[in-house]
Amino acid sequence: MKRVLTVLLISLSFFSCSLNDNYQNVNLEIVPINTVEMPTAYRVDSVTTIPVSYILPTPCHVFSNFYYNAIGNERTVAVYCIKNDGNNCNPVTTYETTVPLNFKPKDLGTYHFRFWTGVNSEGVDQYIEHEVVVDH
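The chain above was modelled as a monomer; its predicted structure follows.
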């Protein structure tokens, strides 16, 4: 039995992979929003698509998801990107991309949206702000 286990362990060591082979770091980053196109009509329990544009900082960034914080009728939105720290991650000329944000209001009323655009020179968060009225 010991010989079988020894042979098995030795054979596994020949076929095992190193954790460092082709390993690249992947990071989640918040990327500033550049522009937002707010629709003019919203309905309760109906999905409205809001086009959100941002600039990819490098070719190694890809869209992941939205940061979406809802408190009452206030919505704070930012873009999460995954950055793959590969060999070719030099900044590119501005490459803007647009992704859809789906908004499905549950109640009538006014909703306040804050889309994160980065921080100013004093380190204060900046936003594009919109109010939308859901009246039917």
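The beta strands are 26-31, 33-36, 48-56, 61-71, 74-84, 95-103, 109-119, 125-134.
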